[in-house]
Amino acid sequence: MRILITTDTFAPVINGVVTSVKNLKSGLEAEGHDVRILTLSNRICSYSLDKVWYIGYISADLVYPQARVGIPALFRIIREIIAWKPDVVHSQSEMSTMWLARIIARRCSVPLIHTYHTVYEDYTHYLSLNRVIGLKMAEMVSRSVLNKTNAVIVPTEKVIEILLRYGVNKPVFIVPTGIHPEYYHGEKHGVREKLREKFGIQPEEISRSEERRVGKECRS
């Protein structure tokens, strides 16, 4: 498949969403899919590099004539993506790149899937000084964005319950955020051994959570 992932942040930025997107991209490519990224540039110009389209970002403090400079490049990139003909658009951000994801999905007549990374109601103190108003804003924005998609991916059952409470009426699926298991279990990097040495954990010791699990299995 040809899969377009849209995200407001990507490398060289480092955060949880970027890590999740990079892991998703590498995992899909390992399965033979052609994956491209559409994200925001860290400067005003737009460009493409290593299957990533960077859209020139125009901050609010720039004057209008400068804002017009970036428009042709934006349209050119959208035309390139439509010509590439993605089979699905997978958005990762609810803000700036979401409207581009909707445009491209509609023009290509393909599904728009969205991964809901951030439970905004946990950050209402950034949205409003009044918690009740902040919760309502988080609910309204989330419902409005997600109900314009074809399906939603969330990491846990808890987030499904939150979205149902918001009134999201699209199919919601649990797909836990991926990691590279070989990094933690393989001998290639020796991560487990380094962590054991750092925290003084002996090779024969196991964690308390593992002790509880093993004990529960033994009792059953």
What features would you highlight for this structure?
eight-stranded mixed sheet; 220 residues; 8 strands; alpha/beta
Describe what this molecule looks like in 3D.
It contains ten helices and eight strands. It is of the alpha/beta class and 220 residues long.
Mean pLDDT: 81
Number of strands: 8
Largest sheet at a glance? 8 strands, mixed
Helix-strand topology string:
EHEEEHHEHEHHEHEHHH
Low-confidence stretches: 60-70, 209-220
- Basic shape: globular
What gyration radius follows from the Cα positions, in whole Å?
Answer: 21 Å
- The proportion of strand residues reads 15-25%
Secondary structure tally, helices:
10
Q: How far apart are the termini?
A: 45 Å
Q: Identify the strand order in the major beta sheet.
A: 3-4-2-1-5-6-7-8
SS-based class: alpha/beta
- Report the helical percentage: 40-55%
Could you write a compact summary of the structure shown?
The chain is an alpha/beta fold. It has ten helices and eight strands.
Strand and helix map with partners:
Blueprint: E1 2-7, H1 16-30, E2 34-40, E3 47-49, E4 52-55, H2 64-69, H3 71-84, E5 88-91, H4 98-108, E6 112-115, H5 124-127, H6 131-146, E7 151-154, H7 157-166, E8 172-174, H8 181-185, H9 191-199, H10 208-219
Parallel strand pairs: 1-2, 1-5, 2-4, 5-6, 6-7, 7-8
Antiparallel strand pairs: 3-4
